[in-house]
């Protein structure tokens, strides 16, 4: 399998991406990793002893975090992100991964790779950690700020297939993000979507409140991109704040420092369970190829996680399964 990596996108590019590729290439020799970017920058980082399953695809432009997404994709046709997307479109790569500009990656998926037949609005999916350690797939996380009920149904179908194909979950439980668990709760969008989801060929378990998302009550949670993006950032912000408060309290006195030293292994395990590095790699579901978004601050460990998830999706035929599901719909 061949995976194109936008080696110039993200806060720690290109060094973190090169390091992750070297580690992944050694662990998975059946995977060819294509670093897309400026060869003069990438080659020195690879050195002379790079494994044979790593190569460089030249791309001399970079889409930055401040670039306007659609304009950047249309004008910077030789950017690392667009070139990686074009490789997926032309069959030169089975998937692409980028930790760069999220909006530009959405535009690359739509304008360069193209939508799957039958899909109205692709959705960005992300895995949240849960108490049962299985995680929960949430979509849409911001690809589309507005949605119709039928879009939420498509997200539910795609999310259910993803958890089945990539994570091996039989009959994934699908929930609808809402302000209450009763069927009549919510706005016009969620109330209309609820009835349609009940009729869809999925294991729909009803409404889920945001306070229960991390409890592991379902395997897939569906929402519009506006609500989903707020939920994502609220969870990240809450986790960061809690850890900051703990750090302050546990270093405030000599007694608390002694207690903290004794509890350090437990705190480390909690931190690891909440570490986004372990869940990195959000697929843009609904485009005609595997397009995966890495967290903007991805380090080498996080990028390797994204590579691992991408390999699994390719190996289990995710895109073919989605195409079969929506053909003729």
> What percentage of the residues does DSSP assign to strands (E)?
15-25%
| Shape field | globular
Specify the helix fraction band.
40-55%
- The figure for the number of domains is 2
Distance between the termini: 29 Å
Q: In which order are the strands of the major sheet placed?
A: 3-2-1-4-11-10-5-6-9-7-8
Structural class assignment: alpha/beta
Number of strands: 11
- The second-level CATH architecture of the largest domain is 3-Layer(aba) Sandwich
Q: Look at the structure and give the mean pLDDT.
A: 91
CATH topology of the largest domain: Isopropylmalate Dehydrogenase
The level 1 CATH classification of the largest domain is Alpha Beta
Q: Provide the succession of SSEs.
A: EHEHEHHEHEEHEHEEHHEEHH
As residue ranges, the low-confidence spans are: none
**Radius of gyration, in angstroms, nearest whole number:** 20 Å
Oligomer: single chain
Largest sheet: 11 strands, mixed
The total count of helices amounts to: 11
CATH homolog superfamily of the largest domain: Isopropylmalate Dehydrogenase
